[in-house]
Amino acid sequence: MTNLFDLTGKVALVTGATHGLGMAMAKALASAGATLVVNGNTPAKMEKALKEYKDSGFDVKGYLFDVTNEGLAKENVAKIEKEVGPIHILVNNAGMIKRVPALEMEVDEFRKVVDVDLVSPFIMSKTVAKGMVERGGGKIINICSMMSELGRDTVSAYAAGKGGLKMLTRNLATEWAKYNIQVNGIGPGYFATDQTAPIRVDGHPFNEFIIGRTPAGRWGNPEDLGGATIFLASKASDFVNGQIVYVDGGILATIGKPSNE
Ligand code: GCO
Question: Is the pTM of this model over 0.85?
Answer without folding.
Answer: yes
